[in-house]
Records
---
Amino acid sequence: MTVAVASTAIPGATATKKKVNFANLGVGAAMNMFEVTTLGQPFEVIKTHLAANRQDNMATAFKKIYQRGGIAGFYQGMIPWAWIEASTKGAVLIFAAGEIEYVALNSGISPFAAGLVGGMGGGLAQAYTTMGFCTFMKTVEITRHKATGPNVSTFAVASEIFKREGIRGINKGVNAVAVRQCTNWGSRLGLSRLAEETIRKFRGSESSHLPLTAWEKIAASAIGGGLSIWNQPIEVIRVEMQSQLKTAGRPEKMTIANCARWIWQTNGLKGFYRGSVPRFGLGMWQTICMVAGGDALKKFVNEKYAKH
């Protein structure tokens, strides 16, 4: 999802900057909405369930999620929180990461390094501008039922948390979200660009300068997204900090440090990697949508507006 305003880097070429307009920013929102409404939210629900209920296996997770609402159970937290989050964070990422990558590429660093820096900056911008509250409420929706019951509306739950804990309460875990987003998109964009460079090298010198095909972009994005699950411990900590499940001995006021200690004490090292399989799928799908799909849609939009 790097190039909202910087074109995909081809080694030896100068990055070109395109005019930033509302249509360009809308690409990020559109692709993020598509991603979350299709496979994104089911992957998110399964991943979050396993990270919060670390004693469950995949089969048990599927069974419990289905019991909570059938097929709709796999889309818990999508309306309104995931949609609000997707429609804003995509635009923030596509703008911030693209601007940063453009500057980085023209400073002379490699496409891999530029993608890494752009992704990290875009991920941080997402976390602190649009994601804190929505990510927290998505996790609340997925984990709250044992504590508050399914008949309490999501807005009532949000209101109660705000009355009880204020702004800090509804943004609980935002620093963990920031670390996750920074490492997520730094890895996804950086590794995707590295995969693109590798594909060009395999093509040979005669065609290395040509743009990647759609399938090559999808393959590079899938590689970048899939390999980026190395930071799963950060995601498990984030889920635990935002979870509404009550367990004896669990710290009331969670920080990243005492949350990590709690996970280690209760589940050991393997606890930090619960939910890795669905997150692998989620990472691939998000990166395909936001990098390969985002690049293709941005190209279409830019070419269309260039004619007017």
---
Amino acid sequence: MEEYMYLLVNFFLIAVVGFIFVVIVEAYRRRNNHLHVEVPAIFEDPNSLKQVPCPHVVDPAEKYMSLIIPAFNEEHRLPGALEETMNYLQQRASKDPSFSYEVVIIDDGSADGTKRVAFEFVRKYTVDKVRVILLGRNHGKGEAIRKGILHSRGELILMLDADGATKVTDLEKLENQIQVIAKKQFQQGKSSPSDPTFRVSDIPVAAFGSRAHLEEKALATRKWYRNFLMKGFHLVVLLAAGPGVRDTQCGFKMFTRAAARRLFSNVRLRRWCFDVELVFLCKWFRIPISEISVNWSEIPGSKVNLMSIPNMLWELVLMSAGYRTGMWRISGST
């Protein structure tokens, strides 16, 4: 019996050491994921077939707001969400001439008609209003959003899902909160609250849409094992990124240009858990985060399933190892 326990303990220790070794190797392999060694993004005008100059988030803002929409095999859900989004943006621009915008769609290696749908909207609204980035192969939602944000032109940058699960009009809740926080930060040490040099794009602030107010209803309707897995995931998120944000995974988030510049030049996770990494980086840079309740509805066709949970946990382990060992160095982009 003692010999059996001895073998069992040794096997367990070997397994733990092996797991730690694999984590360290994989974290090291991903240390340069944020450097963008892929082919540079190119915008093409489908009407003239001419290439359009590609901006970068380090450049001065040219629009008031950028909306970033990652899309992977969204041929059926994307048209409705885009129509609703464009209708809102056009109506707002007609009422406020100072409101300028762009929508950037990132096709993350789709195998269906997503590219065709996206370019139909470019033709309809012009390449100044709607732009498409083609990643060629599937990299993951995090990488698609990062690529779109790095090549956006807005003072404020909103990421939102292609399914339209969150009403686009709720962006005003995030926008208003960012304006309030940015002005407070700018006014610290200023004698005049109406200083003409104030630009919201220069103040690092983030606002996260949240479905936490819907959690009680979700707990009542989900299967027990789904609730168990989600609670476990939230615990791991708490350990990896710390407290402060109840819903890290809502796909409706807004950043000022200054915040986006710092965050997305450092993000390394390319799939579902990049949201958690954003929370970690916000805390590292001391970028204030506001969590704001948004209207959200379940849309059929979600890409997230039970098998996604182990992959998400694996990414969180890699993130913790990468940052805590210093392998993932954070650059202080300004």
---
Amino acid sequence: MALFKKFLQKICNDDGSKDFKDGSAKFGTVKADPNFNAQNDAAKLKKAIETKGVDEATIVEVIAQRSNAQRQQIKAAYQQSTGNPLADALKKVLKSDFEEVVLAMLMTPPEYDAFEMKRAVKGIGTNEAVLNEILGTRSNKEITALKNTYKEVYGELLEENIKSDVKGDLETTLLTLCKATRSEDSNIDDAAAKSEAKALFEAGENRIGTVCSVLIDILTNRSEAQLYKIFQYYGQLSKDSLAKDLEGELHGSFEDCLMTLVKGALNKPAYFAERLHLAMKGLGTNTDTLTRIIVSRSEIDLLKIMQEYKRMYGKSLQEDILKETSGDYEKIMMTLCGTP
């Protein structure tokens, strides 16, 4: 809950200067290779796979320095020339975290999101943090593509899997996000922002149960631009009373889900920077999180995430990756960050 309080205070103290039309796709670290040739790259990978001991350096060079669209063409060219899927060939010769990241990069973005969501709900226990991260940060178009791919690949409805694995307020929140109907209008309705800030404030003054329903409705339906303005007006009413009302009431995965939506509206690259930092903090490294965020944001806003990481933690993301990883996994992560 302390994190929720800190973020509300940060929002309240913000000067309001934020551009919701910046076109974040310009801020990826991975760009299309201007001299791309799918057949040549497929031949390079075939040779690298068949080399005794495997030529991992060539695999990194080809896979991590091509756009996702180009990788799909390489997959097709490899299949055509060898008669075998590229992913299957790589699975046989690679291992551990390096194998995971290479296979992740061969998937399209909707395939990778669907893969991560399926992994989060299958088996004993549910990884709610992954559900929160993906559904809380993707656009309506991305969520729709994810749901369609999930059904095609796994023969199941994502919503049904969520219903069977998650309950209560978290279930309500995730299923609302699954509808992919959240406003994405960058124009702000000032009067509505004032009114909903007041509704949040008054809900907090009454009962915590009301706060949850109001929070879910506002956070899952309003655009990020509108949320930003709502938070500012809330700050004019009370700097921290909502946080005080919520403190001790929200916890665990539901808190994490709402925090994802709040942080995403405030500063999405900073949210991902924090997730990366937590993945590498303390004993051991959560390579699943490290891989998922770096791969999925590499053509969208990884440059901004790296900038926020440096601002927030006083050191570069690459410094921590070098400290916390090793071998071919380290090399491919560094290449994705633009440091081959």
